[in-house]
Design brief:
The protein has helices at 9-12, 39-50, 54-75, 82-98, 107-110, 114-135, 145-158, 183-192, 196-218, 225-241, 250-258, 262-267, 269-284, 287-296, 298-305, 330-343, 349-356, 360-363, 381-387, 419-442; strands at 24-30, 33-38, 161-162, 172-176, 179-182, 309-317, 368-372, 399-400, 404-413, 445-446. The chain is an alpha+beta fold. It is globular, with a radius of gyration of 28 Å. 28% of the residues are buried.
């Protein structure tokens, strides 16, 4: 048996058994009452959300390959014994550590219990045994990745494999002949191979959607086909206004970005959640109230949701008491930036920023920091105040913040929207606030998964 020096993707994604689907991953408050999110809940959320995207498609294909391998090995009595699997795992761990890798650093190992690990190691070993038997190879002859791949291709050819979600029933991720692979298997595979931050993101997404649906139920708000039609039109209009897409049809953008059609988009839970949030926002924040808010304080509304500015930044770090790491005081940093500003009469802002700026996020892009509103909260307020006092093409004097000093340039400015657009954007802003409120009220408590790392 040739033991690989690193866990291959087919091994990492090959598990067929699921951890206990009732394992609790998070606790939260729903309508003021305790509620939980289980492993099974998150697995289904991931499966339906990612099924049509590249990661879901890849995982679905590997689930098919694993099933084909297991069925063929069982049919030909080539599955390894438990002792053989244990010896293989011990040898693999030794080689991984010798190469500077820790087995527990791989999500599929860290997130698997011993029985799961046994099953997908067994399938890995069976795959090689099947190829050896097919090609009549001796025990010392190596089995290459190409041989393993070709065997799978031939096995797929001999079996009628369907992975197109539009040709499968709702709860099925793939079909092999008459055998249907349930969506929950795909979900557990995705969950098991996800990093902690991705798992937690789906936990929060699930809790938010449940909280949103509960709020809509309390307030008597229900989605209709007309609401979904409106949500599709809104997405299409947003894409048409976005210069990044250059007039590409929305349907094409949707297919390229996430593999979705309009019909499948309408069924997606996150999309339906956004449409539900929009309907709740219409009810909670009617036009008359928003028009009154605009009339009371137009400037405050403009600061929140009005025209954005495209900003360029040159940053120099400073401290009240300089040290070896930050050698400049604030007066010294301001003086340096005044000299830099004089150079801009002869040199481009982008070139100077790439040389002089200490902001690593924007330095490599010639100081380009992107688009901001006056009250975005993403940059220091003093910096935004200076930026929004500039005309297009102007560069500010040095601006002092807690971490250092900036030069800011207004690269471009959005036109001021008409009042109906301001009201629309103000409602979206308040809808985001409602999202944040629901998550705060949920009081999410993540539960640390049990330590299932194989010993």
């Amino acid at each position: 048996m040739n033991v690989p020096l690193a866990l291959p993707l087919s091994l990492l994604l090959a598990a067929t058994a699921a951890q206990d689907p009732t394992d609790v991953l998070a606790r939260f408050q729903l309508d003021g009452k305790p509620a939980v999110v289980t492993r099974g809940d998150v697995a289904l959320e991931m499966a339906f959300h990612l099924r049509r995207e590249s990661r879901g498609q890849e995982a679905c294909g590997l689930l098919v390959d694993t099933t084909l391998t297991r069925l063929a090995a069982e049919r030909r009595h080539l599955m390894p014994t438990r002792d053989e699997v244990a010896a293989f795992w011990q040898q693999l761990q030794e080689q991984l550590r010798a190469a500077g890798n820790r087995p527990e650093d791989f999500p599929a190992v860290r997130n698997s219990d011993p029985e799961q690990l046994h099953q997908y190691l067994a399938v890995q070993m069976a795959h090689e045994r099947l190829v050896r038997a097919e090609l009549d190879l001796g025990p010392k002859e190596s089995v290459s990745p190409d041989m393993l791949k070709l065997w799978l291709q031939e096995e797929r050819r001999k079996n009628e494999v369907v992975v197109d979600p539009d040709r499968l029933p709702a709860g099925t991720c793939a079909r092999i002949g008459e055998l249907e692979l349930p969506m929950i298997d795909l979900g557990f595979l995705l969950l098991r191979t996800s990093e902690d931050f991705e798992r937690d993101r789906f936990v929060r997404q699930l809790i938010y959607l449940r909280s949103l649906e509960a709020l809509a139920e309390r307030e008597g708000v229900r989605l209709t086909d007309a609401d979904l039609d409106r949500a599709v039109r809104q997405r299409r209009d947003d894409a048409a206004r976005d210069p990044r897409y250059g007039g590409v049809p929305f349907e094409q953008i949707l297919m390229q970005s996430s593999g979705l059609t309009i019909a499948s988009l309408r069924q997606r839970r996150v999309f339906r959640g956004q449409a539900l949030l929009d309907k709740l926002a219409d009810q909670r924040f009617p036009d008359a109230d928003l028009q009154a808010e605009l009339a009371r304080d137009r400037q405050a509304v403009l600061d929140l949701v009005g025209p954005r500015r495209h900003l360029g930044l040159i940053f120099v770090r400073a401290l009240e008491q300089p040290n070896a790491l930050v050698p400049l005081s604030f007066p010294a940093a301001e003086q340096k930036l005044r000299q830099v500003r004089e150079r801009l009469a002869k040199e481009s802002f982008a070139n100077v920023a790439m040389i002089e700026s200490e902001d690593e996020r924007t330095k490599q892009h010639g100081g380009d920091a992107g688009w901001y509103r006056r009250r975005s909260g993403e940059l220091p307020d003093a910096l935004l105040a200076a930026a929004f006092a500039l005309d297009v093409g102007e560069v500010s004097p040095p601006v002092r913040t807690e971490e250092g000093c900036y030069l800011v340039k207004a690269l471009d400015v959005d036109p001021v929207p008409a009042d109906h657009r301001l009201i629309e954007q103000l409602r979206r802003y308040k809808a985001i606030g409602l999202q944040q409120q629901l998550l705060r009220e949920a009081a999410i408590e993540m539960v640390t998964p049990h330590d299932a790392t194989p010993r």
